Amino acid sequence: MHELSLIASLFEILEEKARDERAKKIVLVKLKVGKLAGAVPEFLETAFNIYKDGTIAREAILEIEEVPLKIRCRKCQAIAERDDFVFVCPACGSTDLETLEGTELLLEKMDLEV
Amino acid sequence: MDKKEVLVREEILGSNRKIAAETRVRLEKEGILTVNFLSSPGAGKTSLLERIAEALKMNHRMAVIEGDIETDLDAERIRKKGVPAWQITTGGACHLEARMVARLIPEIPPETKFLFIENVGNLVCPASYDLGESLRCVLLSLPEGDDKPKKYPKAFATADCLIFTKADLLPVVPFDLKRAEKEALEINPKLRVFLTSALRGAGIAELVRFFIERRVNMIQRHA
Fold it and tell me: Among residues A111, B69, B88, B174, which one has the fewest Cβ atoms lying within 10 Å of its Cβ?
């Protein structure tokens, strides 16, 4: 359960960006959370709603886009989604793979009132 | 009132990652190989470190950073081996973060060759936090069960080596070593696998040789 720590880090970025934009408030925050990011979307939401009280994002809605784990095989170039975390190319069986997405934990965008 | 959409596309853990990257460069340039130990509570991280301390002591200086929610019992155990150790108590937090480690860098004695970080016992949260280590090891003790790699994929996916601990219990616990190794390697084919027993001393020499080799490679890389 490190989601509250993650949300604390998120708010450091949100508050800085909101200041830069001279925002009156943040109305929407969108995150991209990879399947292998090690964070549970439901807990992020709970933590966000606890944390936002008394901040510039107190009325903000949190939107989370979950990103599946996507890999590319360096041998046969096949691209595949692997939700079972088995890092084996489903096309040729190679284990020489590159992770394209699914490990990210991103603040994608925010909607402001300025 | 005007509405404005701002595309940020910034990593939430970006500041942790930045501090970790700085730590890594700084320690590696000083010739220190930093190893981050991850495992569930009671997997034997401290006992393994005690054996490593005995094996390294003759020729290589090491230091240890201990992470726990409360108490400095683990740092005390390490100090008894004649090794400098610092305890970070997180006061409830389930993982260490890069800045906690970075703060301790000035205290590391000169001539230190290995810095071991014992993370808070937890197979979930510590996996998300780069501490600036050169090497990440996940420990899996036999009594925990052979299904752990599949259950906690991130810890195994982000590690460089897998250290089975409490190998002396193999005859008495239902642990399928082949299954655990196979499933861990499916998640992360690059894992180096070690089988150790802190109680009997098995596998410790091989593990220590691996750390020494990795340090030599690291120094060559920075030369």
Answer: B174
Range of the domain at B162: 14-222
Q: How many domains does chain A have?
A: 1
Q: Does residue B79 carry a pLDDT above 90?
A: yes
- Supply the pLDDT for residue B121: 94
Tell me the CA distances in angstroms from B44 to A27, B37, B40, B197, B203, one per residue in order.
Answer: 47, 10, 9, 9, 14
A interface mutation test: which of B6, B100, B182 has the most A CBs within 10 A?
B6
Q: Which residues of A touch B8 (CB under 8 A)?
A: 13, 17, 107-110
- What rounded mean pLDDT belongs to chain B? 95
Amino acid of residue B24: R
Cβ(A79)–Cβ(A97) below 8 Å = no
Contacts of B96 in chain A (CB under 8 A): none
pLDDT of residue B60 exceeding 90: no
The domain of A54 spans 3-67+101-113
Three-state SS across chain A?
CCHHHHHHHHHHHHHHHHHHCCCCEEEEEEEEEECCCCCCHHHHHHHHHHHCCCCCCCCCEEEEEEECCEEEECCCCCEEECCCCCCCCCCCCCCCEEEEECCCEEEEEEEEEC
Q: What is the ipTM of this complex?
A: 0.90
What CATH number should be reported for the domain holding residue A27? 3.30.2320.50
Overall domain count for chain B: 1
Given an 8 Å threshold on Cβ–Cβ distance, is A85 in contact with B153?
yes
Task: Give the containing element (helix H, strand E) for B50.
Answer: helix B45-56
Tokens linked to B126: 């510590």
| B124 close to A (CB below 8 A) | yes
Q: Which residue reads 């690059």 in tokens?
A: B190
